[in-house]
Amino acid sequence: MRPTQMLRAGGEGPLGKYNKYLGGWGNFGGMKQRGIITYGLSANRQNPLAGTAHDAVFNTWRRFSRQVLYVAPPLVFFYYTMEWAIERNHYLNSKQGRAEFGDEE
């Protein structure tokens, strides 16, 4: 069994199963492209956090305002239901509650 050959970064050489290597990514032997201009900006000239605080405030408000009607009504309903249940439990376990409902168990 033959070990796997390494892929080379450039050049045309016989590699692979059919002794054909097409080159690097996108280099398939076509015509050279002309008129394509690329620009780059140095990493130490960029400001990656530009506008982060401003965008965070407004994005948070936008997301909150769209979701509040899905979350708030059930939250309020279940909060008041839980408060009622806690108060009812305290009453039923108090002297007055036991006197009123003690014989129903």
What can be said about this structure in brief?
By secondary structure, the chain is mainly α.
Distance between the termini: 82 Å
Task: Count the DSSP helices.
Answer: 2
What is the approximate shape?
Answer: elongated
The overall pLDDT average reads 79
Proportion of helical residues: 40-55%
Computed CA radius of gyration, to the nearest angstrom? 36 Å
Give me the secondary-structure category.
mainly alpha
Q: SSE order, as H and E?
A: HH
Beta-strand proportion: under 5%
Strand runs, count: 0
Query: Could you describe the largest sheet, including whether it forms a barrel?
Result: none
Describe this structure in words.
The protein is mostly helical. Helix content is 46%, strand content 0%. The longest helix has 41 residues. The radius of gyration is 36 Å and the shape is elongated. The chain starts with 51 loop residues before the first helix and ends with a helix. The mean pLDDT is 79.
